[in-house]
């Protein structure tokens, strides 16, 4: 039975299906539709928390009851990676889409640039978020990265930085603190933020700049996400469902 929070989204706002895999509910939709929906929520000032779940996250949740509870009650999860497609297939469920943060991020930036939605980055080592922000602004003319901060702030420093975030005008916040720290951080801070839409994105701020220099290997992608098969494409596991 779906909890009230998930049931509230049963209207399938962008034609998505809600599928259950190993006790958690995932939205199964194309990247373009998801990007438009998320940025649309940000533009409208409507609150939304978005989490991506890959095979590693499932393993962490098995050892961390608080993290597992957070994911189970979240109304907006996306299955990330070929490992999740394999798990779904073994559970008798057909996941059609690989909604991972790495591939969704450029579409979110493009949509935010087109709609004039300011964004913010939090996480990684000092200068990483700023570097990523500068690259995205160059790649997507019109994109406004209005606030950045690293993930190694003291409690006092973070408190000051969050005050500046709240006055920055950011509508979309990418939090890159790793699993499960970022999900716990979002759950405990979201109500105090003026930024309406918050996403947990793992190591994305590190990976995106590197991705411009090194083409992602589909085999490494599958291994990273828990799939033991060597796929010609990282979407092959999804196509096979």
Q: Roughly how many Å is the radius of gyration?
A: 17 Å
What is the domain total for the residues? 1
Q: How would you sum up the global shape?
A: globular
Q: Percent of residues in helical segments?
A: 40-55%
If helices are DSSP runs of H or I spanning 4 or more residues, what is the number of helices? 12
In short:
The chain has one domain (1-117, 178-241).
Descriptive overview:
The chain is an alpha/beta fold and 241 residues long. The chain has one domain (1-117, 178-241). The chain contains twelve helices and eight strands. The strands form two sheets. It has a six-stranded parallel beta sheet, with helices on both faces. The chain has a two-stranded antiparallel sheet with strand order 1-2. Helix 7 (128-139) links the parallel strand 5 (119-123) and strand 6 (145-149). Helix 2 packs across helix 6, helix 3 (55-63) crosses helix 4 and helix 7 (128-139) packs across helix 10 (204-211).
Q: Mind sketching the topology for me?
A:
Layout lengths: L3 H4 L9 E5 L2 E5 L2 H14 L3 E6 L1 H9 L1 H9 L3 E3 L2 H9 L10 H15 L3 E5 L4 H12 L5 E5 L5 H12 L5 E5 L4 H9 L7 E4 L3 H8 L6 H7 L11 H4 L2
Parallel strand pairs: 3-4, 3-8, 5-6, 5-7, 7-8
Antiparallel strand pairs: 1-2
Helix pairs in contact: 2-6, 3-4, 7-10
Q: Notable features of this structure?
A:
disordered C terminus, disordered N terminus, 12 helices, six-stranded parallel β-sheet, two-stranded antiparallel ribbon, globular, 241 residues, alpha/beta, 8 strands
């Amino acid at each position: 039975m779906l909890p009230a929070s998930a049931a509230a989204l049963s209207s399938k706002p962008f034609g998505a299906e809600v599928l259950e895999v190993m006790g958690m509910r995932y939205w199964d939709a194309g990247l373009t539709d998801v990007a438009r929906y998320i940025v649309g929520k940000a533009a409208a000032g409507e609150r939304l928390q978005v989490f991506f779940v890959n095979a590693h996250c499932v393993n962490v949740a098995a050892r961390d009851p608080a993290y597992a509870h957070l994911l189970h009650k979240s109304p907006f999860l996306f299955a990330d990676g070929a490992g999740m497609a394999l798990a779904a297939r073994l559970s008798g469920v057909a996941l059609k889409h690989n909604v991972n943060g790495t591939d969704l991020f450029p579409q979110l930036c493009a949509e935010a640039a087109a709609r004039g939605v300011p964004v913010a980055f939090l996480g990684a080592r000092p200068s990483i978020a700023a570097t990523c922000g500068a690259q995205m602004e160059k790649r997507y003319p019109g994109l406004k990265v209005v606030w950045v901060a690293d993930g190694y702030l003291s409690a006092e420093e973070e408190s000051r930085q969050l005050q500046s975030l709240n006055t920055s005008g950011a509508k979309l916040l990418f939090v890159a603190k790793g699993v499960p720290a970022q999900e716990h951080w979002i759950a405990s801070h979201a109500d105090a933020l003026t930024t309406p839409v918050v996403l947990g994105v793992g190591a994305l701020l590190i990976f995106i700049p590197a991705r411009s220099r090194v083409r992602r290997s589909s085999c490494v992608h599958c291994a990273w996400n828990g799939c033991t098969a060597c796929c010609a494409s990282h979407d092959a596991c999804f196509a096979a469902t």
